[in-house]
Amino acid sequence: MNGLRTITAMAAALRAKEVTPRELAEQALASIDRTDDALNAYLARTEDRAYAQADEAARRLSSDPHAPLLCGVPIAVKDVLTLEGAPTTAGSKILEGFVPPYTGTAVGKLLAEGAVVVGKTNCDEFAMGSSNEHSAYGPVGNPWDTSRVPGGSSGGSAATVAARTVPMALGTDTGGSIRQPASLCGVVGFKPTYGRVSRYGLIAFASSLDQIGPFTTTVEDAAITYEAIAGADPMDSTTSSRPVEPVLDGLRAPISGMKLGVPKEYFSDGIEPGVREKVEKAIAVLQDTLGAQIVEVSLPSTDLALSVYYIIAPAECSSNLARFDGIRYGVRIQDGSLHASYRATRGTLFGPEVQRRIMLGTYVLSSGYYDAYYRRAQKVRTLIAQEFTSVFEQVDALICPTSPSVAFPKGAKSDPLSMYLLDALTIPVNLAGLPGISVPCGLADGLPVGLQVIGPRFADGRVLQIAHAYEQATEWHTAEPEIAQEVKG
Amino acid sequence: MTLTGAEIDHIAELARLQLTDESRERMVEQLSAILDHVARIQAVDLSSVSETMHMGEEVNRWRRDEVLPSLAVEAALANAPDSDGHYFKVEAIQEEQA
Fold it and tell me: Cα separation of A218 and A221, whole Å?
């Protein structure tokens, strides 16, 4: 890729006329061709559309000196996000052949900036999973070791950015589905505050938790993307009407004197020693090199978050996925009567993890169990959010590991509960609607480890600022898997 | 707690999921294990805690009551497995009584 790895580098090269948008698109598509047998990161390539967009971007760059930074830059989009005319499956057989009639807001905003979409990325079916093994179209390989998982559910987006085929890919994060795969693939993954990015055109999993965000190789690129996609949207009434603060302006401000909380519950025995060691070193960098003040804090209800999540998320999933009935879109399996066809279609075409969550959600919402499960979970959710609020009266942000483990071998976690436990450190952030980011903070036995920074609601700029300061004080964001050398070509 | 096969059948019927014998067996085992895990919220004192019903701070979002362009019928029907004219077509809704 001419050594061009970032949005900022590509934007500069485009303006210096060292490269054209079409060449960047061609290189991205060629590098996908070279790597995707090993990675399986893509469910669809949008080649023709990409070249048309690239040519349009070239015209814009030549006539508009203020063209946005993303103009002419190749990007990829998780397959739960709609792009008009491009096949969208959400990683499910039930949507095989579905071609959305409209483009979602976040993707539409990137297109309006001139970004060039080269493909739709693989993911766990309907974004339900932590390893990408629940995609109906096969698992994604981790670029650092293709026998291992990339994390999930946005595994394809994480893998393609880690392999340096595109500088940015959009993902979605319901319980950690951006931050955890970013951690396991050694890239930056940012989940904005709930309500900052419109969910219009995102195939819903759990509407009170879902949020769209970017995978990038640098924090600056994440900030650029965030500024492009954030903002109120009449098509999503849960978007906030607060004005979006410009995050790029404050990105380079020093963080000395900032109070950073280390929540002791996030350093339990379940954290792998290699992960703990790298995160502790990162905390030392924040303190000794960058002058932040480190304070131990407590979030006592942390161990309840997983339970709350696995009640609320399946409940919302069972409701949201009721729309997949084989009537208006997707695939239908006829079985003699309407009722029988519903059962056959859903029972045959939803994969095991999706069926499990629909069953669990239906159960906790069913008569007789609603109060004991769903209503109680909604109350504990309040407790968890309140604990964050009171901790943020003492500190500016929190720092902790993103994932308790590094990337594990495909097939290693066959029991659903053991897979769910991998999200223990990311889930509380979704329950409280907070912004969170994962930045690379080292390699443990050759596999990436991520540092998570969590901020108060709407402090997206501060989270990016802290992550950027850490990134610039270390070299970890420049570490690339071998497969990225192939991409360089 | 252990869910019974009959409970699994009842939930599957509510969710319109046709389960194979094998997946029914697995559901009994796996859902029971997950429910055992999440049961820890039962012990928390929540007498003075209110529910989080939504994540937003907005109250009402108003817009003008005016007709805006929306999806054309052809586009809305383009993905349907079966359609007839301007309609989605489904199988018989009423079943014959034996």
Answer: 5
| Whether B34 and A376 lie within 8 Å, measured CB to CB | no
- Residue B26 distance to chain A (closest CA, Å): 9
Q: How close, in Å, is residue A380 to chain B by CA atoms?
A: 7
Q: Which one of the listed residues A131, A153, A154, A318 is annotated catalytic?
A: A153
- The answer, yes or no, to whether the previous bond of A153 is cis (omega within 30 of 0) is yes
Looking at the structure, do residues A334 and A415 belong to the same domain, yes or no?
no
Are residues B55 and A316 in contact, defined by beta-carbon separation less than 8 angstroms? no
- Which of B19, B56, B79 comes nearest A347 by C-beta? B19
A78 catalytic residue (yes or no): yes
CB contact A318 to B (< 8 Å): yes
Determine, for residues A329 and B88 on separate chains, whether the beta-carbon distance falls below 8 Å: no
Closest Cα in chain A, distance from residue B93 (Å): 6
Q: Does residue B21 lie within any of the structural domains?
A: yes
- Searching chain A, which residue's CA lies closest to the CA of residue B93? A338
**Domain annotation covers residue B85:** no
Partner-chain residue, chosen from B27, B40, B51, that has the shortest CB–CB distance to A382: B51
Last residue of a domain, one of A351, A383, A415: A383
| Strands (DSSP E) found in chain B | 83-84, 87-88
If one counts the domains in chain B, the total is 1
B29 assigned to some structural domain: yes
ipTM associated with this complex: 0.94
Q: Is the dihedral of CA A361, A363, A367, A373 positive or negative?
A: negative
A49 close to A116: Cβ distance less than 8 angstroms: no
Please tell me which of the candidates B56, B81, B91 has its beta carbon nearest to residue A337. B91
Domain-located, residue B58: no
B45 touching chain A per CB within 8 A: no
Same domain for A251 and A335, yes or no, is no
Range of the domain at B16: 5-42
CB–CB contact B42 A372 (8 Å): yes
A96 and A14 within one domain: yes
- Cβ contact B76–A101 (<8 Å): yes
Annotated active-site residue in A31, A135, A177, A318: A177
Task: Give buried/exposed letters for A328-364 (b at 16+ CB in 10 A, else e).
Answer: ebbbbbebebbebbbbbbbbbbbbebbbbbbbbbbbb
Q: Which of A333, A358, A383 is the last residue of a domain?
A: A383
User: Are residues A461 and A346 both part of a single domain?
Assistant: no
The whole-model pTM stands at 0.97
The parent domain of residue A309 ranges over 302-383
- Per CB-CB distance under 8 Å, the chain B contacts of A343 are 16-18
Say whether both A63 and A131 belong to one domain. Answer: yes
C-alpha closest to that of A179 among A168, A192, A166, A167: A192
- Cβ atoms within 10 A of the Cβ of A62, count? 11
Per-residue model confidence as pLDDT tens for chain A (489 residues): 457 999 999 999 999 999 999 999 999 999 999 999 999 999 999 999 999 999 999 999 999 999 999 999 999 999 999 999 999 999 999 999 999 999 999 999 999 999 999 999 999 999 999 999 999 999 999 999 999 999 999 999 999 999 999 999 999 999 999 999 999 999 999 999 999 999 999 999 999 999 999 999 999 999 999 999 999 999 999 999 999 999 999 999 999 999 999 999 999 989 999 999 999 999 999 999 999 999 999 999 999 999 999 999 999 999 999 999 999 999 999 999 999 999 999 999 999 999 999 999 999 999 999 999 999 999 999 999 999 999 999 999 999 999 999 999 999 998 898 889 999 999 999 999 999 999 999 999 999 999 999 999 999 999 999 999 999 999 999 999 999 987 654
Asked if residue A455 and residue A353 are part of one domain, the reply reads no
Residue in the structure block whose two tokens are 């293709």: A146
